[in-house]
Specification:
180 residues, mainly alpha, 2 domains, rod-shaped, DUF8129 domain-containing protein, LipDrop-assoc
């Protein structure tokens, strides 16, 4: 027997496939809404991921173009706005590790030993000072006197000497002194 032309054979195969699919259609209709919704959600998630990746890449590029801010411009406080720009002079704390030249003087001086012992303990005004974050400390500064603030500043300089903390303490000391 001679074979039929290719287009006729393809048409016959399509017809048989259509009939087979038509018989399976009632079984597939029950799961069709779930499948459509699932695929739509997957597409939505992929699109969101791509948009987020583009935003992250854009942030990386733009961050390299502008320098980081020391203190964000939104972080202003009432005392910062009204405080005069006068520098605060606070006495320096002695170095905890004396050199060979000072060791004779410092070992004999009981006041130096007492000052070191005082600086080794957290300030009495805020016993939990070491555990406070910058915002937590800022919230507690309004009730402290200038002497308490100076004690905190000396303790900070003797221990961690964090610029954000010392700057905030200096500004608060200036504000308290200006109010008195």
């Amino acid at each position: 027997m001679k074979q039929l032309p290719l287009p006729v054979r393809i048409a016959a195969g399509l017809a048989v496939t259509a009939v087979e699919r038509a018989r399976l259609l009632p079984q597939q209709l029950a799961g069709l809404p779930v499948t459509v919704v699932s695929e739509a959600l997957q597409l939505s998630m992929r699109l969101q991921q791509q948009v987020t990746e583009l935003a992250i890449k854009g942030d990386d590029v733009l961050a390299g173009m502008r320098p980081p801010q020391e203190e964000p411009e939104w972080a202003t406080f009432d005392e910062d706005d009204s405080a005069p720009a006068a520098p605060v002079v606070v006495r320096e704390t002695p170095d905890e590790t004396p050199t060979d030249a000072d060791s004779d003087d410092d070992d004999d001086d009981p006041w130096t030993e007492e000052e070191r012992a005082i600086l080794a303990e957290p300030p009495a005004a805020l016993p939990a000072y070491d555990e406070l974050s910058l915002p937590q400390l800022r919230a507690r500064l309004r009730v402290l006197s200038a002497e308490d603030l100076e004690e905190l500043l000396a303790y900070e300089r003797a221990h961690d000497d964090r610029p954000q903390f010392t700057g905030m303490l200096n500004r608060r000391i200036a504000t308290v002194r200006a109010q008195t």
